[in-house]
Design goal:
Order of helices and strands: EEEHEEEHEE
Strand order of the largest sheet: 2-7-3-4-5-6
Radius of gyration: 13 Å
Distance between the termini: 6 Å
CATH architecture: Roll
Largest sheet: 6 strands, antiparallel
CATH topology: SH3 type barrels
CATH superfamily: Ferrous iron transport protein A (FeoA)
Helix content: 10-25%
Number of strands: 8
CATH class: Mainly Beta
Length: 95
């Protein structure tokens, strides 16, 4: 059995779990929105934490802590970001 760090998209991250953005699929986002997210520091290498997830059908909005700032995002933005949980235990992967 192989082991790898726990990786999910930002919208799937458990609340309160610190994570590092490892990749962003900028092609899934409108260019103006991508520019705004970069300006807010939401790009590869940034440490983030999901503070809130909406409770209705769309699960929008997401509140993401980036440094000392909390940013509201749509779920589609979170789905474009791959994160790796910081300090998480390794998860088994079927080989």
């Amino acid at each position: 059995m192989l082991w790898q760090p726990r990786r999910v998209t930002l919208d799937e991250l458990p609340l309160g779990t610190p994570a590092r953005i490892i990749a962003v699929d900028w092609g899934k986002l409108v260019p103006e929105e991508a520019d705004r997210l970069r300006a807010l520091g939401l790009e590869a290498g940034a440490t983030v934490q999901l503070a809130y997830r909406g409770v209705l059908w769309t699960r929008d909005p997401l509140a993401v802590e980036v440094g000392r700032m909390t940013v509201a995002l749509r779920r589609v933005h979170g789905r474009a970001m791959q994160v790796e949980m910081v300090g998480a235990t390794l998860a088994p992967v079927a080989s």
